[in-house]
Amino acid sequence: MTKTFLNVQFPVLDDGFVRPVDVMGGDEAVVQAARVSYGAGTKKVSEDRALIRYLMRHRHTSPFEMCEIKFHLRVPMDCWRQWVRHRTASVNEYSTRYSIAVNAAQTTAPERWRRQSSDNKQGSGEFLDLVVGRELSRAETEIQTLARKTYEERLRLGVAREQARKDLPLSTYTEAYWKIDLHNLLRFLELRLHPHAQHEIRAYAQCIYDNVLCAWVPMTAEAFADYVLNAVTFSAVELQIMAAINGGRAAEAAEIYRRAGWDAPKNRERAEFEKKAAKIGLKF
Amino acid sequence: MTKTFLNVQFPVLDDGFVRPVDVMGGDEAVVQAARVSYGAGTKKVSEDRALIRYLMRHRHTSPFEMCEIKFHLRVPMDCWRQWVRHRTASVNEYSTRYSIAVNAAQTTAPERWRRQSSDNKQGSGEFLDLVVGRELSRAETEIQTLARKTYEERLRLGVAREQARKDLPLSTYTEAYWKIDLHNLLRFLELRLHPHAQHEIRAYAQCIYDNVLCAWVPMTAEAFADYVLNAVTFSAVELQIMAAINGGRAAEAAEIYRRAGWDAPKNRERAEFEKKAAKIGLKF
Amino acid sequence: MTKTFLNVQFPVLDDGFVRPVDVMGGDEAVVQAARVSYGAGTKKVSEDRALIRYLMRHRHTSPFEMCEIKFHLRVPMDCWRQWVRHRTASVNEYSTRYSIAVNAAQTTAPERWRRQSSDNKQGSGEFLDLVVGRELSRAETEIQTLARKTYEERLRLGVAREQARKDLPLSTYTEAYWKIDLHNLLRFLELRLHPHAQHEIRAYAQCIYDNVLCAWVPMTAEAFADYVLNAVTFSAVELQIMAAINGGRAAEAAEIYRRAGWDAPKNRERAEFEKKAAKIGLKF
Amino acid sequence: MTKTFLNVQFPVLDDGFVRPVDVMGGDEAVVQAARVSYGAGTKKVSEDRALIRYLMRHRHTSPFEMCEIKFHLRVPMDCWRQWVRHRTASVNEYSTRYSIAVNAAQTTAPERWRRQSSDNKQGSGEFLDLVVGRELSRAETEIQTLARKTYEERLRLGVAREQARKDLPLSTYTEAYWKIDLHNLLRFLELRLHPHAQHEIRAYAQCIYDNVLCAWVPMTAEAFADYVLNAVTFSAVELQIMAAINGGRAAEAAEIYRRAGWDAPKNRERAEFEKKAAKIGLKF
User: Fold this and answer.
1) What is the domain count for chain D?
2) What does the angle CA C277 – CA C278 – CA C281 come to, to the nearest 5 degrees?
3) How far is it, in rounded angstroms, from Cα A201 to Cα A179?
4) Residue C192 among the catalytic residues
5) A117 lies in a domain?
6) Last residue of a domain, one of A139, A167, A195
7) B87, part of any domain
8) Residues D19 and D135 in one domain
9) Residues A123-162 pLDDT 10s
10) Chain C interface includes D271 (CB < 8 A)
11) B22: part of which helix (H) or strand (E)?
12) Chain D, nearest residue to C194 by Cα
């Protein structure tokens, strides 16, 4: 296999990137690890793709740990704060105690300022008006310029780098090596490709998924899309309701609704179920 | 809260036990950790149960890490081999290098010998005939007796404990302290309560679930049952098929079947889907 | 044991704090876990203190994992960036996606600006002149004020919190629950009490050591000071040199120096050895 | 670099082996990760070997996590029980639920039976008399033969594999893929090359050190030998005593002894210090 994605610098945001620098294993290593469980005498009954799909479907995660990948990254610190919450990974970050901070901060184009989401307390909605956006971008430049000037003035006056950096904005870019196994990379992607993830880290996750995962482990990426990214889980209560509806027992369905407290106004569980039910065209 | 389960020795198998010896936190600590994300000014909109259910439903796992539990366990080594594969836990096991091995091995009653499962390569099916079982239990006693005699003879002749133990049977009981956070305990229970888990470790998982989890964190245990233990996940392909069926588009459903390779004889994905579909009374 | 340190808010830096909120276990739990290795029949030969010292001396770390502690913390984000690099811990951080950022940034008094260290590329040296410090503190107020104003203006104009925060300074305080076992807490303290650790995080580590560790697990804290914090390790080469010097074989010592490349100017290994040798009054 | 050790099956014990199957990185990847901390503008002051020694000396462990290695192993289950206690690694073990257990148990030659150590409760001493050894080996064959016969009889009668295996001896060989990063491999080797580690696992550790580590990462292996394997740590009390002795203040040294409780008979700390002092020819 030629790994054409290796050492390619994939751009993300205005000045960030993802650059895969080394890999160990691939789809075939997942299969090899899974087969050790079957022992020497086992016939190769199922072919690789079916086996990988089986592992993914039943959350047999350990064979996916047998692959490893290492990236060189350039990410705004604000985004990096979320990134390092994924603990099962190895990290060597550019040190602003040893070196002068990267002279770049993430900037926002006037048309890219996002309104507070109305239905998701932690999220963003549509873009703000361009007139407002222009003013916001102007003010962004002002604060970023002053922050850098203050930083450089501190260094000029002899302040230690570790202290001088203290008022750099969270938008400042940092760089790092990041090494993670395939199982934990999938978990990172699952969480960071989610519609509720913040735009910035989603952009990185999408870049990794599109340019790296699909090229590196195509069978795993396909199974991951089917069984994780685009799958839907129904709870015990939801399964009962669906069984009642499919069985034509509307009264029973209503009764389950009531017992679950779903008849309260603004009940969140019901709202989420109805969205999922719409997805499969369930009529009730 | 009085924790009546603390220091109770719950028996498992013929000579094993589970004894919870200490806990930190509970449902209220999960809630407290989740609320730190909302900041000081946030009104307590949703009550605790709804919040815990929300966290469980959306796999927001970190608040569940805020609770911790410690057990004293007595488990056959064969079962313990599976147990310690759960790495995110702390363990101090009884050392047979320092001390003489526990003088007890797991025994099997004549009516408890399990036949190899016909449809699950790693599992067991129904019980063997009692006549055969009697012979098996007799032979079990013989091998266990000889193994212990050999062990004790080695010790008598001055062999080091660490070497003398080498031919003890896997059925020998061991003891340990085992400490784990609630999130990882749930993961342990999810995997070890699964119908495909081996009978022996399922017995321990069931004991912990029934006697400890439900008493310690009742809201979490309920949410876990609804959203994990008794939930069902449908893949991207399965959702498409369900949408086609529910929409009365049988031909489209058949076409998706075909494209997914489900018309092959003994296709495993189809067989699993049909089981799930039956559960919700989907007719097609 | 009354745990008088629980729920006490210990101040750190200008506006931070450490507040222990819950513990599981203590010195006695370390001992209990260590003893399980000795089995039921073992006499209590050594008393607890000696056992804990033995465990610490020989890096038998697993019994220390049997204790757990949970803190509520308030820390500047710059410092928190270092803190979360300790991966074997559980964290729930205040979310500035959900809530408005804490309205406080770490400020520096005019007499507390630190000069870049001359002999340690990552560290700080003595304080800068007060006249310069006054100017630096004035500029600090300016950048922090503008950053907050910009943040609040963004919120006022409807920008999503997750985006509005992007140019907050690293000095902004954050809050979190942090839960860790005793073994990993010791490792945190070892690294963060080190003279090369940054001043800010050292202040937190010192506060935890003084006010929490010594009160919670006094025997462990004492052994940790003797065998880790204040211990010195000599390498294979250094041991050979010491043996030669103590044996009066100066020529041999010089020869080992030479072979190790220590006669090169500015050899770092030699410089470090000489500092350690001075500590034990080794004359050569 | 040609990695001549890859895919070589290095024999260990009577029927075990270590076979490295894949690696990521090497000494150069450690250096590369360490340098990211220095930033683009940093001159390459120190050459690679000195940098790796510096990292090892000061326990800067994260750059060593940037390398990864995967082994195929064959190990007696008794030894494997110790092996899997190293949690920061990925494992896929041969499953005796799916397949028939490996038909091989670790055997002991008549001259290799080890006496219980007199000074180390968990260890072994010299070998037992050959006459006794012959009898022990004969009995070993007997128990292993009966255990295998019982196992096969169970399978013949239709007992499920997962239950049939329950009385196999701990000496039965198992196989696994084992993947670990270099930092954690060093920690494994440090603990398992220790004189107090059990003979069997030491044999594996020595094999990995000799045949794999030194060939894969020669600079790291050398630094590891100097600063970890063959280094000695002196505690705070020991340093004080050494300073007093080197300063010719014998009375002070005696006083420190007394205060530390070292004048008690059979004091373990004193005994350990005297061994270390002898190593550097300290006279007192």
Assistant:
1) 3
2) 90
3) 17
4) yes
5) yes
6) A167
7) yes
8) no
9) 888 999 999 999 999 999 999 999 999 999 999 999 999 9
10) no
11) strand B16-24
12) D58
